[in-house]
Amino acid sequence: MAFKRPTLPELLARVDQDVTSRLSASQASLAVRLTKVMSAAEAGVAHGLYGYLQWLEKQLFPETCDDDLLHLHSAGVPRRLKSRAVGEVIFEGSDDAIIIAGTLLSKDGIDYATTEEVQIVDGTATAPVEAVLAGAAGNQPAGAELRLVSPIAGVVATATVGVDGIQGGADLETFGSWRDRIMLRRARTPRGGAMGDWEEWALQVAGVTRAWEDPLGMGPGSVVIRIMADDTPGGPLPSEQLLQAVFDHITKQKNVQAHIYVVAPGTQLFNPQLSVTPNTEAVRVAASKALQDLVEREGEPGGILLISRIRAAISLAPGVEDYDLNLDDDIVYDTGVIPLWGGVEWV
Questions:
Q1: 207: closest CA among 178, 238, 248, 183?
Q2: Which helix (H) or strand (E) holds 346?
Q3: Which of 93, 288, 321, 342 is the S-S candidate for 271 at Cβ 3.0 to 4.6 Å?
Q4: Which pLDDT score, from 0 to 100, does residue 254 have?
C-alpha cells in the first residue's frame, strides 16, 4: 500500500489529540493552553522531517533527482563539456608579410586566435584559428569577416572565414539532455558494439543532439551513424568538424572491426499548409511549435511520420479549436532521409 505523506493540519491535529488524551478533562477543555503551542511546534518539526525524507527519496533516482545531484548517477555517462570552434581564415596582404601564431581576430565580441604562423604568398595566406572561449557562439559560417584586434604591417585588417566555416563550438550540455542520456544508458547497457552502442557513443560528443545507427548500412561489416546538431548556429545539419569528431570518438570506443561511416542524414522539408481556428498569432505559434516538436522528436532516417500523430499534435496545441490541414496520408521517407522542419505555410 502506498504511503501518503500527512499534511501539516493532519499532523497538528494528530499531535494535539495525543497530548490532550493525556490531560484531565478540565485541562483538555481549556480554550487557551500551552500544549497547543507545543503541539504546533512538534507538528512543524515532523512536517519538515517528512519533507526531507521525501526529498531524499527523489534523489535516489536519476528521473527525479535535483540537477545539482545528477552527477551522482552519471557513472559512464560524463556530461558533454563546452568545446571551442575551429576553422580556417584567409588573410590578404603584401607578399612575405607574416601572421604569427596567437594573432587575435574578433567578430561581434567573439575573439579568435591563429594557432600556426603563416606567411602571405601571392597575396593570400590561410591560417587555422580557434575561438578563445568555448561555446556555440564561436561558430561562424563560411564567408564571414573577422577583424584583426591589432593591425599588422602589410596585412589587410579583415580576414575571411574559409569554405568549411568555423565550426565545432558547443555549449555545456543541458541537464535535460544529460538526464535523458543517463536514462538511456540504464535502459541499454553498452556491450562494445551491439545495437544501441553506436548511437550512445555519438551522443557523447559535444554538439550532437540526435543520432541513429544503421547496421550493415554500407554492406557487411559496416555501421552507418547519422547525426544532427540542432543547437548549433549552423545546424541542424552537422559540420565536417563534428562528423570527424564523432568518427574519432567512436573509433576509440569500439572493440569490433566494423567499418564506420559517420554522415549527415538526407533531409526533406516538412512545411505543411495549415489554417487554425481561432486564427490568432498565439494559436499559430502554439500549433507551429507542436509540429516542430513532433518532427524533431519522432523524425528518423527512413521512418514514417504518421498522419495521426500530426493531427494529434495540432489538436493538442494550446488554444486550437479547429484546423484544416493539407495532408491526408502518412509521410514515408527514403532510407537515410529525415523530415526537416521548414515552418508552416498558413492559408
A1: 238
A2: strand 345-346
A3: 342
A4: 83
* Amino acid residing at 180: D
Set of cell numbers at residue 285: 505559434
Please say whether the beta carbons of 15 and 44 come within 8 A.
Answer: no
Strand partners, 295: none
**3-state DSSP call for residue 46?**
helix
Q: Give 323's contacts (C-beta < 8 A, 6+ positions apart).
A: 274, 275, 276, 277, 287, 314, 315
DSSP 142-172: TT-EEEESS--TTB-SEEEEEEEEEE--BPP
- C-alpha grid cell, residue 244: 570527424
Query: Beta strands 304-305 and 210-215: pairing type?
Result: unpaired
Contacts of 225 (CB under 8 A, 6+ apart): 198, 199, 202, 211, 212, 213, 214, 246, 250, 260, 261, 262, 263
Helical H segments across the chain, by residue range: 8-20, 25-28, 34-58, 175-187, 197-203, 240-253, 281-298, 307-316
Question: What number of other Cβ atoms are within 10 A of residue 9's Cβ?
Answer: 10
pTM: 0.66
Structure confidence by residue, pLDDT tens digits, 1-24: 578 899 999 999 999 888 888 777
Query: pLDDT by residue (tens digit) across 18-55?
Result: 888 877 776 666 666 778 888 899 999 999 999 999 99
- Within a 10 A sphere around the Cβ of 269, how many other Cβ atoms? 9
CB-based burial, 315-329: b 16+ in 10 Å, e otherwise: eebeebeebebeeee
Of the chain, the end-to-end C-alpha distance in Å amounts to 54
Q: In whole angstroms, what is the distance from residue 131 CA to residue 138 CA?
A: 6
Mean pLDDT across 192-199: 84
Per-residue burial over 160-170, b = 16 or more CB atoms within 10 Å of its CB, e = otherwise: bbbeebbbbbb
